[in-house]
Every structure is written in C-alpha cells, then in structure tokens.
Amino acid sequence: MKNILITIVTMAVAFGISFYVLTNFYKHDNELDLEIEGTSNLYVNSSTDDTTLDTDADFTDNDTETSYNESDLVTDTNSVNTDMFPDTEAIFADLTQWKTYFNRNVNLSSNFVPLNNQGEEIDKGDFLSDLTSGSFAPIKLLSGTEMYQLYDIENIQNQKISASVIEAADLAYAYFVKEGTKLPEFNFSDINGSNFSNSSTSEKIIILTCWKIDSKKSISEFSRLNKLYDKYEAYEDVIFLSISSDKSSKLLQFLTKKEFRYPVVADQESYMKDQIEVRQYPTHLIIDEDGNIEKMVSSVSQLEAALEKIAEPDLTDLEEEEGM
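-> structure tokens emitted (324 positions)
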C-alpha cells in the first residue's frame, strides 16, 4: 500500500512539472512572436522614415538648386547696369526695331568705353571679337560717357538680329585691327594727271576714300564729303584723295554729271582689296603724318565723327604754327 502511494505522488509531481514546463514554453513562444511582429512593424516604420528622409533630401537638393539659379539671376549679365539700359524689350522686338536703334545710337568705330556682359571695362578688340560670335549685341548705356555693353541675345528668337550684329561686328573688327598699321606703299596719278606717293605725302594728314560708281552708298555720300573737303582743304598739311575700282574713261564721263571734289585715282581695285583689305564701299581712312592708319571706317558719318576727335586737334596745332 505504501508503495502505491509513493507511485501516485511521484506521478502527480511529474505531471505538475510537465504542465509547468509546457505552460511556460507556450507563454515564451507567444512573447517571441510578439517581439518578431513588433520588429517587423519597426522595420516598416523605419522604411517609411527612410522615404521621408529621402523626400527631405530631395527637397533640400531642389532648394539648393533653386538658390543657385537665383544666384545666377543676380549676376545675370543683362541685369548689370540695368538702371542705365534703354528699353531692350522694344529694341529687340524685331529686326527693324533693332536696325533703327543700332543706326541711331551705335558707332562701333568710335572711341567708346567697351564693357563686357558683367559691366566691366575690357579691350575694344575683345569687345568687337565677342560681338562676332552672335551671342551678344552692343547696347549704348544711358550715361554721359559713350559706353557700350555686351548684351546677351542668345535667348532672343530672331536669328536675323544675330546675323545683323555679326555682319556689323565683322566689318568693325576687321577695320579696327588695321588701325596703327602702315598704309601700304603707293604711287598714284589721278585722272587729271596729279601725282601722289608715300614720299610726296610724308608728314601730311591724308583723308582717303575708297569707292566705285556701282556703289549707290558711295555716290550718296558725295555731298557730305564735298563739305568736308571745303572745311579742311585750306590746311596745307591735309590731303584729300580718293581711289576707285573704275577705269579712267568711265570716271571722267561720270564725274561730268556728279560733282566730287576729291582727286580721283582710277583702276585701283587690286590695291584696295589686296593691300588695304577694303571689305565694303565706301571705306574711309585717316592717315597720320607718319603714314599710319589712324582710323578706318565705312561711312561718312563715322568719318565726320572721327575727324572731330582725331584730326581737328592736329589741324588746330597746324593752324597755330602757320600763323606764327
């Protein structure tokens, strides 16, 4: 009987232990599942947070980019000196507006102050060279000094305006680089038999015009050129001379109908194109007393402006010397 009781007690204890172990194992398993589920939720939240951070990062990058563009606008070449700019919207409205503005306000052969697209003073040769790219146009600033600034026209949807600027700049640059160089050797006889050479014109100012009968612009300038002749021909140290591509017989016949007071040298197309490198008719040159090309321009208005700033001081000095 005693042995039976011991067996029953032992079985009860074993059952209790087993029940305890199984109960705790089940509880632990549920807690583990909860931990795993919680970890999964944290991962999803973490992923969501990462997306938010990426969005913030993108926003920050965009904000930085916007700030950069705004900085560009602050230093935009066309915003410099805007208080001295004319109405550029009207100027570049179409080709006619641009040409009207250019012809009335811009003289690329003058001694202007050249400014780059940042409003900084640069070399005139560099200014004209930049214009030949077609990316800029010259704008005359509204100031007391003759100042031209490069104006960015790359965004202007009118290729004809760009082509017009390039054409004018090419000519102005080609003539500008000739200034300061020696006038090529010459020995001319005009249609009336008078002779002109480097030696006979030494230490004199020469006002030289290159023209031809077929150039309507050349002929249209005769009246104003005659007035210049009347104004300066009294000075002994000033020589007026013109050279033409036409034959002597044709010139003699033409000049009986059209008055031109300059001495005229015939048949000089080769000298003009190959030696002086004339690119347009008419072309006017001012040669100083040392035989250097002081100014080379393509219109009588440019010649008049150049004479006022270059020749007249020299002529005043000559007049004073003659009066002594």
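The radius of gyration is 44 Å.
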